[in-house]
Each structure stands twice: as structure tokens, then as C-alpha cells.
Fold:
Amino acid sequence: MNDFLLAFDVGNTNIKIGVYEGEALRHVWRVATQREMTSYELWEVVGRLLQRSGIDPRKFDGIVVSSVVPPLMTAIREMGERYFGQSPLVAGPGAKTGLTIHTDQPAQTGADRIVSAMAAVERYGAPVIVLCLGTATTISVVDDRKRFLGGTIAPGGMISADALLEQAAVLPSVDFMDVPKGISLSTEDSMKYGILVGLAGQIDGIVSRMKEEMGLPFTVVASGGISRLISPYSKTVQHTHPDLVLEGLPLLWRLNR
Structure:
């Protein structure tokens, strides 16, 4: 059966909204995360996107959510119940994942990390190391017994860039649309290269240590908003899926029906 699903990946910077028909991702939208949005304000955004795509809200079989922004969960639940007639399925404690959450405090593990790990295991099997490259850089480990073992959390690349600009007043702001491929002569290109290669080197160092410590043939998968920027500079990333959390949400739905 091809369930028609509305999926939300709520991150610190952006909310990714996906429409699934069965396993096919038909639409993806990104909107800025606003932590204080009401259910009506959220509906104004989501309803407009659906209307522009000719999608009837009553058509959905379910709503599934991964969120790292707790203040928005009330708005999402109220929106689902009021405007869709659905109680959203939320990634978190009590939800079936197909993984054993083998950490000290499973309830505190980020939903995005679990859902992206589910998607990576579905695609590539276990063991797998999953990078989520967004506001934060998280590196998550799933061993060959499908145990989620946690990993590392560090400031994301854009946080590092913002801190550099804030603390060094004479440096210019830069964008990353045109990234240099090597050592650069201009200040702007030097900053771009330093930020991206620096983050890739951090990732490679951590992943290499994890592989050495565990001694397992890990597949390394990168996801998140800046994964396509970082992956070309990494020596350890094998696959890149920027929307890996969205890919995992239909899996979560099917496991918990």
C-alpha cells in the first residue's frame, strides 16, 4: 500500500517538509525555523505550500516528525490535529526504530541522529557511521549488531564561520557558492578553504579514530545542509544524502503503524 505521508525534519536552522507517496519523495520544501510559531502560523506556511502543489490536506494517511526544537512540537501536534485530523507520529522515546539505542541516556539522543541512522542502515546495512552536518556536526555510530552507540557532537561549520567573523572584525563575510579547490591567494577564498577543509579534516580525524577503535568495516554516510560542500574535501565520506532524515521518516512510519 502506498501511504501518502507528510514528513517534517525540524532542525535548528531550517524545517524540511516532504511529501511521500509510498517510497517516492514527491515534494521537498525548506522554510526557516521559527521557534515561537503557533499552530496557525505553521499551518499558514504548510497549507500555502500544499495549495500551490495542488495537494488536498485531507489526502494524507499520516504525519511523521523528527524534531530537535522542542518548542515547535506543540505547534506541530496542534496543526496536525486541527487542520489534518491527524495525530503526528514523533520520533523519540517509545517509537520503534529497528535499532537498539545503546547509550547512557537513550531518551536524550537526538531524533535526527536516530532517524538518519535508520535510513543509512536501510540503504547500506550495518555497521555504518552517519554524519549530520548542519548547525551542529554530529557523528553517529551503528555497529554490526544494529546498536546505536552514540558518537560525537561538535560545532557545525557555519557556527565556526560565524564565530570567525564575529571575533575578527576585519574579515569579510563570505558565501560558499564558489569554493576554491586549493590554497588560495584572496582573503575570501582563504576563509572558504580553511572552513571547509578544516571541517573535513576534523571529520576525517574522528571517523578514522572510530574505525580504529571499533575495528569494523564501516560505511560512512554524510547528511545535512552542508554535506555536499564538505564531502568533496573528505577522505572518509563514501556517500552523501543531504535529506537523510527525511528518507528515514517513512521507515519510522512503517515500523510504528
